[in-house]
Write a structure and sequence with these properties.
Elements: E1 15-16, H1 17-22, E2 35-39, E3 42-45, H2 53-56, E4 67-68, H3 70-76, H4 83-86, E5 91-96, E6 107-112, E7 119-122, E8 125-128, H5 130-137, H6 143-154, H7 171-180, H8 187-194, H9 204-215, E9 227-228, E10 234-236, E11 240-242, E12 247-251, H10 259-274, E13 278-282, H11 293-304
Parallel strand pairs: 5-6, 12-13
Antiparallel strand pairs: 1-3, 2-3, 4-5, 7-8, 9-10, 11-12
């Protein structure tokens, strides 16, 4: 006998038996072999290939109070996490205080207080807002990693960039969230990170590059600077810039290893020189260790262009 097709909204990711009941799906159908039982009351179509928010959707649909929080919410928002946290794939679920703690396999249960506007819905998943998620991470991350997380959320690029980008939230929203929870665990780290968050960093390594330079008492590079040619056209978009000295910084991540990207990098460097800019290329290795090589490379470039320590 042919299995009855599931309603379309149940086929793209995980779903709760509660949701299938509402959709009129029989309990016998939810025990069919084309569905994977991942936890009590939760099914995933074997052919869905669900990941991200769609894979977690059912966990917040088990009742009206469950919300995705902490590291799990961070993953949905795309927040970069340090290596020792990336390996924690447990699902963090919270209910409001006064309810029972969520308990099930591979779930970390929390009881939290949420003020208005601190929870939202994304791709069918109930979770903490970007700003509240960031504040919750303050109890788990170092200040540097928290800055990288904040940089990711506030990053935006204007229409002149090859790939314009809209911020997930603003620095003001992060600051307001901190002010709403003065006694929350990790709030000191959050306040310290707020002072270091900047708009324009595309990745955690770019954030670490900037912080390494600032910690070494070098000038802070400007983000989101656009270099123009003699016709006023935007032609270069450095990861960091020292306009006064015409020194640009470019972080070369893994995607720069390909042949085509290598050719583009050479062309960009030649274009920089033709416009009077000295490009400093930074690799992952340049950011490692207690005395990262990026500091020496940038200091040398700045001194060659007339900068001197005060």
């Amino acid at each position: 006998m042919r299995r009855k097709e599931l309603p379309e909204h149940l086929t793209s990711g995980s779903f709760s038996v509660r949701a299938s009941d509402k959709a009129g799906v029989t309990r016998s159908r939810t025990h069919a072999r084309d569905l994977v039982l991942v936890s009590r009351g939760i099914r995933v179509p074997a052919s869905s290939g669900a990941s991200g928010a769609s894979a977690l959707r059912a966990y917040t649909d088990l009742d009206d109070t469950s919300v995705l929080v902490s590291l799990s919410a961070a993953r949905v928002w795309g927040i970069p996490l340090p290596g020792h946290r990336m390996g924690d794939w447990r699902i963090h679920i919270a209910r409001r205080r006064g309810f029972s703690v969520p308990r099930r396999v591979n779930v970390v249960g929390h009881l939290l207080t949420f003020l208005p506007g601190e929870t939202t819905e994304y791709d069918g998943v109930k979770l903490t807002s970007p700003a509240r998620t960031w504040l919750d991470l303050a109890a788990l991350l170092s200040v540097e990693d928290l800055v990288a997380a904040g940089d990711h959320l506030v990053c935006s690029h204007g229409a002149e960039f090859p790939v314009p980008k809209t911020a997930v939230c603003t620095p003001g929203e992060l600051a307001a969230m901190v002010n709403r929870h003065p006694g929350m665990r990790g709030v000191r780290a959050a306040r310290a990170a707020l002072d270091l968050i900047r708009v324009g960093a595309d990745s955690a390594p770019e954030t670490r590059m900037r912080l390494a330079l600032v910690n070494a008492n070098l000038p802070e590079p400007e983000l989101n600077h656009v270099v123009r040619n003699n016709l006023g056209q935007a032609v270069l978009w450095p990861d960091g810039a020292y306009r006064e000295f015409k020194v640009s910084l470019q972080y070369d991540g893994q995607h720069h290893a390909g042949t085509e990207q290598h050719v583009r990098d050479i062309e960009r460097q030649e274009r920089s020189l033709s416009l009077g800019w000295l490009e400093v290329r930074i690799s992952k290795r340049d950011l490692e260790g207690e005395r990262p090589a990026v500091v020496h490379k940038v200091r040398r470039a700045l001194v060659s262009r007339g900068w001197s320590p005060k």
